[in-house]
Specification:
Blueprint (H helix, E strand, L loop, with lengths): L1 E3 L2 H13 L4 E6 L5 H13 L2 E6 L19 H10 L4 E3 L3 H4 L18 H4 L3 H16 L3 E5 L3 H14 L4 E5 L19 H6 L2 H14 L5 H12 L5 E9 L15 E8 L2 E8 L9
The chain binds adenosine monophosphate (AMP).
């Protein structure tokens, strides 16, 4: 497995791979890898011939009072995991490689970037769109793999790729969960044992909403009330949002339909956690 730190070397690798007839896949991550990330890597290995995983804790997607400095960095363990998966390249640039001195160019996906997580984290999706655009320009992948866990991010990136006409196919992978249902996240390691238990309320709330949909409820406000009721016995968990939205526009819907996104975000102590599912036609499917 090759570790690459510069954009020019990454592009050289990707172009050579493509010249040799290979389909190139990219899996962008911030490291601190878990089974959710690995599921993306496996999808990439299945769908592509040459796979690069980027590990870059992107400073521009963190707000001034967020966890950039303490974000977990587990380089050796990450490399061991990726090596075992047969990944070809780990792209791990320094911040100055991605943002050269004086960098003043950003990608702003208007509207979408200020909804859901973008509303509580101003500037977050601007940072995400910018870094992902830079990764696409550097790696020139045929396919790029993202998790449905960050469903609003998926909507922002789909819009960006369509608007800029970027020649990359986005592949969205289902949410990987701990055995008790908690969606895997690099931030789960911030949780104390007690908080870890409390965090289960996100999935419980989504299960209750899914059950209500299965029973025929389609009214978004009623469904949001069902979710809110699940949080009632967890006063120490602070709801950030409970939203039923169109997955493409992130605009609220009044009645949920197949393909809509039902998403929750909540603070468990100082840790902000996300979870969601996409409403399906037959039985509601928890991703
Ligand atoms: P991150 O390192 O948190 O930026 O995540 C990198 C990629 O992994 C993103 O596309 C995430 O959506 C995806 N991801 C994170 N957690 C999970 C999970 N539990 N299941 C599936 N994908 C995930």
């Amino acid at each position: 497995m090759r570790v690459i730190q510069t954009i020019s070397e990454l592009r050289q690798w990707s172009r050579l791979a493509r010249q040799q007839g290979n389909v190139v896949g990219l899996v962008p991550t911030m490291g601190a890898l878990h089974a959710g990330h690995i599921s993306l890597v496996r999808e990439a290995k299945t769908g592509c011939d040459a796979v690069a995983v980027s590990i870059f804790v992107n400073p521009t997607q963190f707000g001034p009072n967020e966890d950039l400095a303490k974000y977990p960095r587990t380089w050796d363990a990450d490399c061991a995991l990726l090596e075992a998966e047969g990944v070809d390249v780990v792209f791990a640039p320094m911040v100055e490689e991605v943002y050269p001195p004086g960098a003043a160019t950003f990608v702003e996906v208007e509207g979408l970037s200020s909804r859901l997580d973008g509303q509580s984290r101003p500037g977050h999706f601007r940072g995400v769109a910018t870094v992902v655009a830079k990764l696409f320009i550097a790696a020139e992948p045929d396919r790029a793999y993202f998790g449905q866990k960050d469903a609003a991010q998926v909507a922002v990136l789909r819009r960006m790729v369509a608007d800029l006409g970027l020649p990359v196919q986005l592949e969205i992978c289902p949410i990987v969960r701990e055995p008790d249902g908690l969606a895997m996240s690099s931030r789960n390691r911030y949780l104390s044992a007690e908080e870890r238990q409390r965090a289960l309320v996100l999935k419980r709330a989504l299960d209750a909403v899914a059950a209500a949909i299965a029973a025929g409820e389609r009214d978004a406000e009623a469904l949001q009330a069902v979710a809110r009721a699940s949080f009632a016995d967890q006063p120490l968990v602070k709801i950030d949002y409970i939203a039923a939205v169109n997955w493409a526009t992130l605009e609220p819907v009044e009645q949920v339909r197949a393909g809509d996104l039902f998403a929750v975000a909540a603070w468990v102590g100082t840790t902000r956690l996300l979870d969601n599912f996409i409403v399906s036609n037959e039985s509601p499917q928890l991703g």
